[in-house]
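Q: How would the structure tokens look for this protein?
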Amino acid sequence: QVYLVESGGGSVQAGGSLRLSCVPSGSIFSFGPMGWYRQAPGKQREVVALITSGGTRYADPVKGRFTISRDNAKNTVLLQMNSLKPEDTAVYYCNVLVRSHDGGWQTYWGQGTQVTVSS
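A: Here is the predicted structure in token form.
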């Protein structure tokens, strides 16, 4: 079993910054793509940013404002969010593809962390 612990959410005013952190733990041999998704009230969950061995990708609404990174030494995936807007308000979820020691691949989700941006 793999667990993803998220932290860093909160409430900020428009223009502010937050940094989200996701720390996987458990039976992990290696990682595949890691990413952040978000879900606003009444909307579907959407991808925000992804990081793979080939690089990073961002959803258009966050390009130039958000930065996803990975600390390989700590197996941590980070999301730096700058110039936040009220429309960024959502629950943010970490998503990680994990290869276990038996060779199987499985995707895992974090518990979600609330980000609220006021105007």
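The two ends are 40 Å apart (CA to CA).

Residues 31 and 112 are 20 Å apart (CA to CA).

Upvote if useful.
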